[in-house]
Input
Amino acid sequence: MRSETPSALREDLRLHEAAAEADGSPAWVIEDPVVNRFYRIGWLEFECLLRWGAPLPQVAAAIAHDTPLQPDTGQLKAFEHFLAQHSLLRPDGDRLAQLLSQARQPGSWRRWQWWLHHYLFFRIPLIRPQFALQRLARTLAPLFRPWAAWATLAAIVTGLLLVARHWELFVSTLVESVSAPGLLAFLLALTCAKTLHELAHALVATRFGVRVAHMGIAFVVLWPMLYTDTGESWKLRKRSQRLAVAAAGITAELALAGLATLLWSLAEPGPLRSAAFYLATTSWTLSLALNASPFMRFDGYFILSDLLDLPNLHERSGALARAALRRTLFGWNEPDPEYFPPWQRRALVGFALATWLYRLAIFLAIALLVYFFFFKLLGILLLVVEITWFIARPVWSEARVWRVRWLETPRPRQRLWQAAFLVLVILVVFPWRRDVHGPGLLHPLRQQRVFAPFPAQVAFVRDAGAVRAGEELVRLDSPDLHDQEHQTRGNIAALGARLSGIEAVEGGLAQRNTTRERLGEQVARGQSVNEELDRLRIRAEFGGHWLDVDPLAGTGSWAGTQKPIGILIDPATWVVDTYVGQAEIERLEVGANCRFFPEHQNTALIGEIVEIDKARSQRLPHAMLTTRQGGAIATVSGGHELQPVESLYRVSILLHEPPQNWREVRGSVAMTGKGQSLAYSFLIRTFSLLIQESGF
Output
């Protein structure tokens, strides 16, 4: 039978009295001098340490006899697990042998397990600044006076008011700074701002007598960040002092941002103003958007913890939220890990849920950044590690608890969850997905857009209405061409008369040949001019309806080559061009039924697929479908053409009946395809993405 006697505590640990808890109960801090870490404990844990070494049931009985506390053995075992987890207990024989074995194995950093655990977060201490900080704190003592705070606040307000008067110029400067030199300047400003941020933490802590053990660089997913070890701030008995240490970084960055904003408003254009702009934008963004957030363990979190006087806010609120979820989802008799008033308990549960959602978004963003930052194959591996470690691992840990304690769930709740699970399996596995959706553009099958072949004067434009094939739609005129035509005719007549005169003279063979060549050139030039003049008479290529006539294209006006004069359509046959991805194109086949939903209309137009491209579309002929024009297809410019960013395939749909309004219109298409389950679709998309992005 396993002994209930716990392992002994380490002899080098130190116990310090700390500020009381919010309810007035005493608190202490365990100091681990080896790793310079501190663990806050309450009254029960302190009483356990006083009697540590005896069997746990005896410790529980002694505490219940000597104090008002009534602990059970489970609470003591949980505290023992906490001490062992943080290596605060003296290792027993087996554990000591394991540690010695690991210590004798050199090159642990060469193993992939080491990199898996350490690339996510690790620190590199660089300096021990205590002596320098004490001298600097004495030098900068005037800056901590009230008059300095009021002067800084006045400067910040003045700078903001001045920037508000020149807001458009400030925003335009921000847009113009998005460039390679601008990015370098932002990085330099970021370095300056973060250095001041950490220095402020260290100086305020030093002024309150807190030792700053070291300063250095921390790497969060290989991204470097400065850090300051102010872990000993727990020694401050006043909550206002601990709050000042936690808020010092944000306060310094806000002061820097405000002063830089004022400097930008007052300085003349040049390097000084540019430097002030980068410092202002960087400091405002980091202070308000990142450091002030209480959902990560940045300054905002410690400020909120000190304001509420709730150390370990994330862990304690998370434990409350897990207990609330277990009661709500499974009906377990799950007590709260600690007592809070009802309003405070609800607030902490809501805070924990918001923290989980915020961290989910942040970790997904970090995973994508890691994926795009490294080369393809390594990026995919690190992306999987990020998602597994930060997202899947906590979910799996909680799911294991649900599985182990499933039998505690009441029978009606079990049947409800089993039914929900069955419905989920049906939704995921059953191939109920049939419709394939995509953006589409409705247009006539045959259409003739009429442009001027070159800049010319309008002589005639047909009124809108029905026309027959071959009828003249537009007649243009070019005075230059008419002048060339008259000049060419005169040249031909003159050269012909001269050639007749030369042939009557004997011995003029050379002149005749030369004259014939010049005559042939003029004849060819005349034919070319006539062809150009004939291009100015634009006729209907087919019978249809002539519409959208430019109201400015009146007789005598000039027409260019970019703006259409009008459009001829065949109103009998209309088609829809839509574009779908590679994963969906295999589900479609010619003859499938389709529905087209025009924008801002409630009725659907019915049609069927008549053509499916076998190769991906290299260009997008319909600008209305691009995101720049309010459509759904992202494109990049390739010369004079628009190229889709994703691999898209064109699908042509023939409508059964023409629309009532003869206009091109954008909309969405729903096409009947082969059934496909969500699980199969997810696997296909995942493998396609892996193969495409890894470069296989």
About this structure: Residues 14-96 form one domain. The chain has 20 helices and 22 strands. The longest strand covers residues 433-444.
